[in-house]
Specification:
The protein is of the alpha+beta class. Helices cover 38% and strands 25% of the residues.
């Protein structure tokens, strides 16, 4: 997988002055658009579309400073319909407009070319299994929150702190499927996975698709039907929150590049259990996958 990702990086470099077709990139990488966007964002720390934009503006910046072509010609070459649109994008990245940069020879920001390499650090004891699951349902309290790639997500912290503990206990009684107990569920993420984009966050439980014998779901909860499919299940334990953060990193930097699976659309489920003092964690991460 890493070799294919590096091939698409070369493909992008050769076509910075052309429209980049993500479907074509996915075909070259022999994977789906969904998985390509997810893998790229996880490994590069920046969405694919943002990387292409920043590389274009890096190359365009060098041409602006070279002062051999008009600013409008450069803008059109790199896909901007007007000098104004180019100037806005240029200023957003470089902190200065193209005209001023040309006049003053200002220092500009550079997005380096990426290359992906597999480095196995062995920093976490990642264990996994692949399971096929019939339909099931997530029942829980739902909030729309921003995506935060690193550090605490204060919106989620505030949301969970505001939940009545008795309501959580009532929810937990509905759990009759693995992963058991209260889980964190993320769904409807933006395909770019860009920092600050929004997602649906559920504080809830996994239950059978049809469970008439189960207690009535608490008022105010939301039901998320999840169709049958294949799931990769990863488990880890260690210091909190480092063990969980390392698990996410290792899944995308080591497991996916080395196994014949790719992500597919669907909710991502995390079950976490903390020690009494909150310093140690046991975690189980469920990701929807399909064979490549």
């Amino acid at each position: 997988m890493l070799d294919r990702l590096n091939q698409i990086l070369e493909h992008i470099e050769d076509r910075l002055d052309q429209q980049v077709d993500v479907a074509e990139l996915a075909r070259l990488a022999a994977t789906s658009e969904y998985h390509l966007r997810r893998m790229f964002s996880a490994l590069a720390g920046v969405p694919l579309s943002e990387y292409v934009r920043r590389r274009r503006l890096t190359v365009a910046g060098a041409e602006v400073l070279a002062d051999q072509e008009s600013l409008l010609d450069i803008a059109v070459r790199y896909g901007y319909g007007s000098g104004e649109a180019f100037a806005r994008a240029f200023r957003t990245m470089h902190g200065v407009g193209p005209g001023e940069a040309r006049r003053t020879g200002a220092a500009l920001v550079s997005q380096p070319r990426l290359a992906f390499r597999l480095t196995v650090e062995g920093s976490s004891s990642m264990r996994y299994r692949v399971v096929d699951r019939p339909d099931f349902t997530v029942v829980g309290l739902k909030a729309r929150v921003p995506l935060v790639h690193s550090g605490p997500n204060q919106a989620i912290i505030d949301f969970v702190r505001g939940i009545d503990p008795q309501l959580s206990e009532r929810l937990e009684k509905l759990s009759d499927q693995d992963p058991r107990g209260i889980v964190a569920v993320c769904d409807d993420l933006d395909p770019s996975r860009a920092e600050g984009t929004e997602l649906d966050y559920y504080h809830g439980v996994v239950t059978s698709a049809e469970a008439p014998e189960a207690p009535e779901a608490p008022e105010g909860t939301t039901v998320l039907p999840v169709p049958a499919g294949t799931w990769a299940v990863f488990t880890t334990s260690g210091p909190a929150p480092e063990a969980i953060q390392e698990l996410w990193r290792d899944v995308y930097s080591q497991w996916f590049p080395s196994n014949p699976y790719r992500t597919r659309p669907g909710p991502e489920i995390l079950r976490t259990r903390l020690s009494a003092d909150g310093t140690e964690a046991e975690a189980e991460l469920w990701l929807p996958v399909e064979r490549e």
